[in-house]
Amino acid sequence: MKRLALNATAVAVLVTTVFPVYWMFLTAFKPTRDIQAATPTFWPADPTLDHFVTAVNAPGFWTYWRNSLLVTVAAVLIALVVALLAAFAMTRMRWRGRSAFVVAVFAAQMAPWEALLVPVFIIARDTDLLDSLAMLTGVYFMVTLPFTIVTLRGFLAAIPPELEEAAQVDGCSRLVAFRRVVFPLLAPGLMATSLFGFITAWNEFAFVNVLIIKDQDKRTLPVWLSSFRDVFGTDWGATMAAASLFALPALLLFLFLQRRVGTGMTAGAVKG
Amino acid sequence: MKYRILALAAVLALSACGTGAEPETGAAASGAPAKLTVWIMDGSVTKELLKKFETEHEAAHKGVDLDIQIQAWDGIGERVTAALASTDAPDVIEVGNTQVAQYSASGGVTDLTAKVADLKGEDWLPGLAQPGKIDGKQYGVPWYAANRVVVYNKDLFAEAGIKEPPKTRDEWLEITTKLNKGGNQGIYLTGQTWYALAGFVWDEGGDLAVQEGGRWKGALDTPQALAGMDFYQRLQALGKGPKDADEANPPQHEVFAQGTVAQIIAVPGVAARVLEVDGKLKDKMGFFPIPGKTADKPGTVFTGGSDLIIPVASQHQDEAYELVKALAGEEFQKELATTMSFVPNRTSLAGVLSGDEGTAAMAVGAAGGRATPNTPNWAAVEATSVIKQYMTAVLTGADPAAEAKKVSESITTTLNSGS
Amino acid sequence: MRAGRRSFWPFLLIAPTVAGGAFLLIYPMLKAAVISFQHFRMGELIRGGATFIGLENYAELLGGEEFWQVVWRTVVWTVVNVVLIVVLSTGVALMLVRLRRGLRLAVMSALALAWATPVIAATTIFQWLFQSELGVVNWLLVTLGFDSFQGYTWFADGTATFAVLVILVVWQSVPFAALTLYAGLTTIPAELYESARIDGGSGGQVFWKITVPMLRQLFALIVSLEVIWVAKCFPQIWVLSQGGPDDATTTLPVYAFKVARVLHRYDLGSAVAMLTVVILAVALVSNLRRMVRS
């Protein structure tokens, strides 16, 4: 009886969690007449790709898709490397100012990014970095960096330093010891963290609007999605198809990393 | 893991190519022409006309390559500001006549006072020229004007047995009720069409805001303004226009093109866009001026329109000026006016419109045209959407008097906040 | 390696972080701080030449009613969301521990899926779910017998919009917190629970006497992260309601953005941002202190 109630709750949680995402894909595949039916259907009786065709044919889709992917992947990779170095120094070494650095990294998460639009714009203008994907990449790198460091630090702290010490005793250099012993243990953490960074950077739209001005071919997908919604407003099929295409890379990455993420996402924070 | 992500990226990029992605074309190779970037607002001009202009202008000006970018309204204020503040701005920007004052005052727009005679500015429409002029200097160049009329579906009018367009508001409500039958909507009026509300408020003798001893004061809470809102509410109920959206969401010409909507309030140029969506309404669209309270006086309307500006930060000032001159010149103005049913930027060109039903209706209304309160801060009131929110609140059942008081206070604060 | 030998290595390792932070975070922050003491509006952004006006922007903010309303709204927004997130995710985590493997993996995957949905996609979905005429939520409510929801316009009413945003943010935030707490729960030795049960403790007692103290650090971390994320939450609100209707969903970051980008009061917007950072720092000072100690 108790088990039944527990399982029922679990199913309820499962359904409410998945439903919005399911509804997005379902709407995207439904013919318009089903979307506008007074009684909604909960299964794609008559799936169609029309809405996806509309979305993909909207001006700029592929260009923006590629820009987003480029900027996001670059920002995430740079952030991972930089964060790994910092996290190593934070967990494996003692130095003056370490605790101040920890606090600074934590506090950096409080940065009011929306209010830094104008200063960042001025900096980009004065260094001739307007209309440049490099500047966008830099900003996204910085937006994701603090959280990446905090999580990686947690993961590293969870790995006993004795493991590396033992390897070093066996004659490995410190770098080799790190690569052979620590890196494999850290892999789930790196993946979970990269997913987080990916989602954050993939979403950003406020900076694109002020940093990319004249060269429209350098805009990114969130901007495309918002102007798409302007134009297609209540064509919910097309809008959901566009949203699906927008969500797809993150969801694919999630499927790709899923096994590791399940345990990885959390282990770091536990020790955090 | 790095390689895996790269591999994933590669796979995604490949699949992108596989389904027919076209890489965007780079700058033209030979001769390195001056590439002029032009921002035209979404909905101003049809794509064909822009294409035609582009071809002709490039042919007439060797070494000029036009890049005409259509701008969405959403977030346009931010983008224009960023452009004016940048070091390599678009060369010509279309800005609304309610917005041009604040940009002109900012110092980021090229002063064209010396060129007014060359542009034949002596008979520019004052509603476009004045907002573009700050402290005696002309920054904005008038481009076109338009005001709203009622666009109707002739078939649906005939079906309902309506022979003649209404002359007064009461008649208007009466015929719209008749039209609002079966699957058809009497009028498709979204809840946030605020310039239509402005017209009704002006008809009642009210205003959006008034100036009292150097200070601005929101005036939507006056009895006159409330009467205007009341009429809006009664009219809006005679169709299925969403109460929480404006006419751009979804674009009302697309709704009208489906053929089940009897009337919309729009500029006559919307007809061209309706036909772009669906040709079945060809020759089925009629126009009449927005009715007033009495038959002898048509409804007061909001005069909308656009000016062209050249940012100081444009790298091609001379080419940009030539472009503005062409866009604001007689030849293109005539073409623009006839294709889009706009009022041309000079009164002496108005003759080209005679014989067009839509613009005839527009001209009747234009006689009583009004503008939004003349202050650079008005743009901020529009940007904060407070009037739209007020309308939605009233239409969904909130107390009009209390809501009007709130929105008026908010307008008062914004208009007096300095710039 | 644990020897306290002085070395340049640690500083070399943090150098990229410090360099990135200096150029892209600290420098813009300082610039924003400077702007908050200036007369800096559209003209100054375009022409340059801003003048210092001391504390006038702060005086305007702190002396006006609106700012305090926004602060109060932000506090309510943060508290409601964080409480819901923590309570729900604790419940989900406790449930996960008790589930059989198959169902547990299914629920965990579902949570991770919701977590991985990009904010703007999620926001668009919620607009569609709560759409007035064709939205599935209104249909469901009417089907369940709440007839007043026929065609109900959620986004026209302040409280309703606020509620939809809370549901959205909670839906997006619970997965991270729940999975983290679940991982924490699995580290508590089973013997502790057994001995507690032998001593005759009820479920509630066990939770408060063992689970909560064991996971105190983890709870503290989650609460402070969620406070930061929720208080700073911007894209959801901006895309869904732009702070409306009637400012009912204008929290501090939305307010700062509106003041700066819409009214072109960059000076006032920067002042709002500076005050936001101060308020957040004060709210989290005890946590920061604990981090220094650890």
Kindly report the CATH topology of chain C. Answer: MetI-like fold
How many domain regions of chain B?
A: 2
Please give the oligomerization state of what you see.
heterotrimer
Q: Please describe the biggest sheet of chain B, giving its number of strands, its sense, and whether it closes into a barrel.
A: 7 strands, mixed
How many individual β-strands of chain B? 14
- Rg calc of chain B: 23 Å
Q: Which CATH architecture of chain C?
A: Orthogonal Bundle
What is the spatial order of strands in the main beta sheet of chain C? Answer: 1-2
CATH classification class of chain C: Mainly Alpha
Give the overall silhouette of chain B. Answer: globular
Instruction: Please trace the helix and strand order of chain C, writing H or E for each element.
Output: HEHEHHHHHHHHHHHHH
Strand content of chain C: under 5%
Family (chain B): Belongs to the bacterial solute-binding protein 1 family.
Signal peptide (chain B): 1-21
Protein name (chain B): Extracellular solute-binding protein
GO biological process, one term (chain B): maltose transport
Provide a descriptive summary of the structure in words.
The complex is a heterotrimer of chains A (about 270), B (about 425) and C (about 290). Chain A has helices at about 1-30, 30-35, 50-55, 60-90, 100-110, 115-125, 135-160, 160-170, 175-205, 205-210, 220-230, 235-270. With about 270 residues, chain A is mainly alpha-helical. In chain A, helix 4 (about 60-90) runs parallel beside helix 7. Chain A starts with a helix and ends with a helix. With about 425 residues, chain B is of the alpha+beta class. Chain B has two domains: about 35-145 and about 305-360, Periplasmic binding protein-like II (D-Maltodextrin-Binding Protein, domain 2, 3-Layer(aba) Sandwich); about 145-300 and about 370-415, Periplasmic binding protein-like II (D-Maltodextrin-Binding Protein, domain 2). Chain B contains 17 helices and 14 strands. In chain B, the strands form four sheets. In chain B, strands 1, 2, 3, 6, 12, 13 and 14 form a seven-stranded mixed sheet that branches. Chain B has a three-stranded antiparallel sheet with strand order 10-7-11. A two-stranded antiparallel sheet of chain B has the order 4-5. Chain C has about 290 residues and is mostly helical. Chain C has one domain (about 65-295): MetI-like fold (Orthogonal Bundle). Helices cover about 75% and strands about 0% of the residues of chain C. Chain C is globular and about 75 Å long. The interface between A and C is large, with 98 and 91 residues.
